[in-house]
Task: structure prediction
Amino acid sequence: MSSQNPLPRVTAVVVAYNRRDLLGEVLDALAVQTAPGLDVVVVDNASSDDSADVARAHGVRLVSLSRNTGGAGGFAAGMAAALDMPADDAPEWLWLMDDDTVPTPTALEKLLAAVVDTSFVAAGSRVIWTDGSEHPMNTPREKPFVSKAERVAAARRGGMAVRSTSFVSMLVRTDVVREVGLPIADYFIWNDDFEYSTRVLRGRRGLHVPASIVVHKTRALASTDADPGERFYNEVRNKLWMLRRSDSLSPAEKALYGASTLRRWVLTFVRSSDRAVLRRGLRRGYRDGTRTRPRPNSLSLAGLSVTDAVRAVEGDRG
Result:
C-alpha cells in the first residue's frame, strides 16, 4: 500500500454460533490487527450460549438473529448489515470469517498490501491449524486456465491466482458485493463459500496471499473428504444447486469441478465408517438438488432484523 493513499475502510464480518470462547479469541485477535481502523460486525446465529454477550463485551456491532440461518445465512446477514450505512461511511472491503478463525496480528495488513490499487477484487489468507501445519480443509489451488499475465501479476503481489477462496478469511471488495449480491442463505452450510467466491471471481481476479496467516481452530485436522455424516446431504444438495442453478462457473468449469466432486464423493464413501448415513444423504441431496432451487435471500431471511438491509443490497434476485 502506498503511504500517499488513505487506508481503505474495512469491516470484518464474523458469524458466531455456540462457540463463545473461540469467539472471544477471534475478537481479541481482530482488536490487535496492525491495519488500523477495522470495524467488526458479529452475527449471532441464535446461539444458546452467551456468544452475544461476548460480542457486546468487546464493543463490536452485534446482529442478533432470532433463528439459526447457518453459515450461509449468517454471512449474507452480516454482509448486508455491514453495508447498511451512509455511503461516506460504508466499507470498501469486507473481511469474512467464522468464529473459529483466529487471524494473526498482520493478517489483514498483508491482505490489503497485496490487493489495494490492483485489479484483484478478493483475496484469501494462508490457513493453518493449531499445530502450525497447513489446514487441508482450506488448501488453495491455482486458478484453472489461468493466463500467464494473471499468474505473473499474482506473483508480483506475493501470491497465487485463484478461482475460489473460503470464508475462513476472505477479503472482498464491496462494489463487487453490490454487483453480484450476497451468499445464498438457503445453502445453510457447505459450498456456500465455494459458490459465492466463484461468483465473485467469474471474470475477475482473486489472490491467495500466503503472507497473511490465520489459524482455523477446528476440532480435528481434517480435509474436505473427511466423513461428514448427516451433513453429506448439504454437500450433495448444494453442489447440485450450484452446478445446475448458479452462474458462478462456466460450462467448462462445471465439467471440471463436477468431475472433481464425484472423485471426492467416492473417497468420502471409501473412508466412511457409516456408509448407510452417506447413502441416505446422497439420495435426499440428489432429490432436493434436482427438484428444488434456493429461494431469494429476501425470502430466506424474511422476518429478521436484517431483512431490509438484504433487500437494499440485492432486491429479490434469486
